[in-house]
Amino acid sequence: MIIRQIFNNNVIRAENQVGHEFVVIGNGLGFKKKNGQRVDVEKIEKTFVLKSDKIPQKLIDLIGETSVAYLKVADEIVGNAKQEMGDIFSDNIYISLIDHIQFAISRYRKSVGVKNSLLWQIKKFYKKEFMIGMGALDIIDAQFGIQMDEHEASFIAMHFVNARQDGQGMKQTVEITEIIDDIFNIVTDYYELELDETSCNYSRFITHLQYFAQRLLSNEQDQRASGDNFLYEQVKDKYAQAFQCTHLINQYLELKHESAMSIDEKVYLTIHIQRVTTRKDMASS
């Protein structure tokens, strides 16, 4: 492994024999070293392993002005997230997370708290990401002695939602979450019931809404439409109540988002609504 850039005495950018770049942390790794020299592997404490062969310039710039403590915390949080959900996050998670942690700690040291208006929705619709956020609070507390609340955990969770969706913007994540919440409320109000959050059908329903909302905002519905009128009529007749609920959701989308569901989307959503609201999947009230 060869040194390509020295950020400081303890953080360097290195490259292996096949040209894959890494950010490497270790006490004295960069001390009295020069670009092109071999890395002292015995001193390596942590290695940022990215999906891309080359480290994004934005991350390089950020590391150049970030203390080792923040890098280690971010790397541990991402490592825990990968253990929980797999290696499904884009490399942007390092950029957004390091930047966010620095800003959040600065705020807390100044006693400036920020509330997340989507806290309830994040906890409900992104359970795994929220638990990653809660675990991140323990890591931050252990490193910096700062105890943050669940609002901060939800902000961290949203960064992982972004990274799971190929680094989509935070604005789109907020919009997707709001759409999911609105559709969820239409279903529960229409059926006048609480859904069983422990059921498999509930998990499938929420996952469907997440991807549906993403397709809606990305204008990808028409690309997926098969126009299967026969299946549409079958579902409409067989699941009349669920189809009517889907109709209400379509009206909401037309009114608030100026977008209507394709035939395929109506079929898929109707089936999910039927499954999640059948009696065996209802929460006891």
TrEMBL record:
Q: Where is the PRD domain?
A: 65-170, 171-283
Keywords assigned: Repeat
Report whether Repeat shows up as a keyword of the record: yes
InterPro entries from the entry? BglG_antiterminators, CAT_RNA-bd_dom, CAT_RNA-bd_dom_sf, PRD, PRD_sf
Single Gene Ontology BP annotation: regulation of DNA-templated transcription
Keyword Iron recorded: no
- SUPFAM superfamilies given in the database record: PTS-regulatory domain, PRD, SacY-like RNA-binding domain
Q: Which GO terms of the molecular function aspect are on file?
A: RNA binding
Which Pfam families does the protein's record reference?
CAT_RBD, PRD
The record's section on PANTHER family has:
CRYPTIC BETA-GLUCOSIDE BGL OPERON ANTITERMINATOR
Extract the NCBIfam families matched here: LicT (NF046042)
The protein here is known as Transcription antiterminator BglG
Q: Which organism is it from?
A: Paenibacillus kribbensis
